[in-house]
Structure formats: C-alpha cells, structure tokens
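lol forgot to send this yesterday, sorry. struct tokens for the thing we talked abt
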C-alpha cells in the first residue's frame, strides 16, 4: 500500500548535498524529517535544531533503527552508498541516493536487486537534468524541430576543481574514480535524457592524471583530508569518451577536475540534428543559467543567412524537484514502485565502467 499520512524520513550525510535533501523535505507539509546522521557533531546539532529533528546520531546504522522511519536519503562518500542503501531496503525503507549510484556497476546491481526484493523505491539524484536550460533543450529535441539527432557532445570542465586534494574524492577505493564518475555521470545522464535515451552500444575512452598527483588543481576546500588521513592522488583528473549509439549516432563526453584551460568552469551540451542543431553553454557557477542557441536554415533572414536564435530558459529546481518526485512516487500507487528500482542509474554506471575499462585496456568496449 502507498505510504499513508506524513512520510517519516531520515537523512544520512550533512554536507552540501545532504542539506539540499533536508531543505527540500522541510518544504513539504506531507514529510517529516525524524532523523539525521553525520559525524560532524556541531553541524548535526545545528541542523537538527534548525529543522526540529528529534533523532540525531553519528552512525548511519543507528539511524536505520529509528522507529517509524519510512524512507532515507543517502548523501555520503560513494563507497558507503551500497552498504547503506542495501541495509535500508532490506529493512523495508525507500531510498533516495546521491549520484553516482555506487563505485561501479556490480556494486550498483546489489542495490537494484535489494530494491526489487524488498518491493521498495530506489532513486538516484540526477539533479542537473532538472535544470531549466537542460529541460528546454530536451523539449526542443522532443518537439522534432531539430529532426533526428545524430551527433552530440557533452562536457563539464574545470581548471582548478579537484573537490579536495587528499580526501576520499581522490582515493580510488572510496570514490570509484575521478571526474568521469563524479561530473561525467551528470553529463552522461542529461545528454541521454535530452536525446531520448538511445542505447549506448560501445565506449572508447582515454583518461589522464597529470596535475592532481603534483598537487595542482585543488583549489576547492584545499587542505581538508579524510578522517583516516590524507590520501595519495589515485584517480584521473581528465577524461574523454566516444560513445557509439544505437542507430549510428555518437555522443562525445569530456570532463575534467584539473586541466590548463580558461579559468571559468564550463558545462554544456551541443547536438547536431537532421533539421537543425543546438548548443547549451553554462559558464561559471552551476547556479548560473546557460545560454541555449538553436541553429537552423529556416526561416532565413532578409539577406539569406540562417536565422539562428537564442531560446529563453527558466531556472529549474534541482534537488527540490528530485526530492518532490521521489516523495510523490513513494506516496503514490505501489504498483509504480517497480519502475523506480535504480535501473536507470545502474545503466549509467555500466557505461562509466565501460569507459574506464576502455581507458585501461586501450580498446573499444562493447556494452
């Protein structure tokens, strides 16, 4: 049966992402955050006080023991996604997990299997597909104005954007990889979403680790380390991938934490269709709206030149939209829960795994 009454949820993880979940839940009158878990005692106390959360614990295992809990958000280092999600699902809880779903596809598979066995919802946070500019690009493609897309490129590039040198982000066992699994999975998700979910047939990729091992490119929260002490730089800081799509199309993906380029971060997507093309470019902070341009031959200007145009876009709702969708599914018809078992995120993980395998083995990898 659907979850009745006020939905009682817990949030594991007190960083930026966890706070986005907390704020989105707090905005809904049909949800009550009854438990928080995190190792930062001062932050745990302040967030718990601000949101009136009754149960505040350091260990996620203790949060799962809270009586009456119905759903949990997971916003912690990637290595903990699968252990927490599987334990929560086995207790009959619904799960909303930050991206990437897990460190790799086999680990992600255990989460999906647990969701199916429990008959519970498992959703993964792909908040950037909820951007207003990405949604506008998706609508352009879906409307048929650009014809059939056959070539696309997506990117997220930072010059000095290693999340934290010496932290879990740069530890291969804790993170599962560098910018490809961190930023690239967002690029992959919004690109396939925009293109209408074409099947990826094969991946050919190259990764590089040139700046991070030298202590370069780590301006974000520099100096912070993981609890166990600083980690060596064990992941890539740049990745390029070439993905063959069903029907003969191609998607190129580029992502970096650290590379010598323009100092302003940039993310975006461009595509070529049989009747037109489009390009979305976001410069700087991800809160900035991107510029969406459309290129066609019709109508022509008075002097016979193509009448390219800029499409107005609205701001999206990011995490708030993801949380709302999750809550609506959980509170809705249980017959629909099986369509929200984490399979889409598992598919993304398989593609990322193929890219890493291609880079290691210097060959194209079929999916």
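and heres what i got for the seq, position by position
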């Amino acid at each position: 049966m659907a979850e009745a009454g006020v939905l009682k949820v817990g949030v594991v993880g007190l960083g930026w992402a966890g706070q986005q979940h907390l704020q989105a839940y707090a905005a809904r009158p049909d949800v009550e955050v009854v438990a928080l878990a995190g190792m930062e005692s001062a932050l745990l106390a302040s967030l718990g006080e601000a949101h009136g959360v009754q149960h505040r614990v350091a260990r996620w295992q203790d949060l799962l023991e809270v009586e009456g809990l119905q759903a949990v958000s997971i916003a912690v280092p990637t290595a903990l996604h699968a252990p927490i999600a599987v334990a929560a699902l086995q207790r009959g809880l619904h799960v909303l997990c930050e991206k990437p779903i897990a460190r790799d596809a086999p680990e992600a598979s255990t989460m999906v299997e647990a969701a199916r066995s429990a008959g519970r919802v498992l959703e993964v946070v792909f908040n950037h597909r909820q951007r207003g500019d990405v949604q506008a690009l998706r609508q352009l493609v879906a409307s048929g104005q650009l014809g059939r897309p056959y070539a696309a490129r997506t990117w997220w590039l930072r010059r000095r954007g290693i999340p934290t040198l010496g932290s879990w982000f740069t530890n291969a066992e804790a993170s599962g990889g560098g910018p490809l699994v961190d930023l690239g999975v967002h690029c992959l998700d919004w690109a396939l979403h925009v293109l209408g979910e074409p099947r990826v047939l094969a991946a050919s990729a190259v990764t590089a680790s040139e700046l991070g091992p030298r202590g370069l490119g780590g301006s974000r929260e520099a100096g912070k380390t993981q609890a166990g002490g600083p980690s060596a730089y064990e992941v890539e800081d740049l990745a390029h991938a070439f993905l063959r799509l069903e029907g003969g199309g191609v998607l190129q993906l580029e992502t970096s934490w650290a590379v010598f380029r323009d100092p302003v971060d940039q993310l975006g997507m461009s595509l070529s269709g049989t009747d037109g093309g489009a390009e979305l470019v976001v410069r700087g902070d991800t809160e900035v709206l991107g510029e969406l341009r459309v290129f066609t031959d019709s109508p022509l200007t008075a002097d016979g030149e193509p009448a390219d145009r800029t499409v107005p876009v609205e701001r999206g709702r990011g995490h708030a939209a993801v949380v709302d969708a999750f809550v609506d599914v959980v509170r809705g018809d249980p017959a629909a829960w099986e369509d929200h078992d984490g399979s889409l995120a598992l598919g993304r993980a398989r593609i990322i795994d193929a890219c890493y395998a291609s880079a290691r083995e210097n060959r194209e990898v079929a999916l």
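Confidence is low (pLDDT under 50) at residues 221-229. anyway ping me if u want another try
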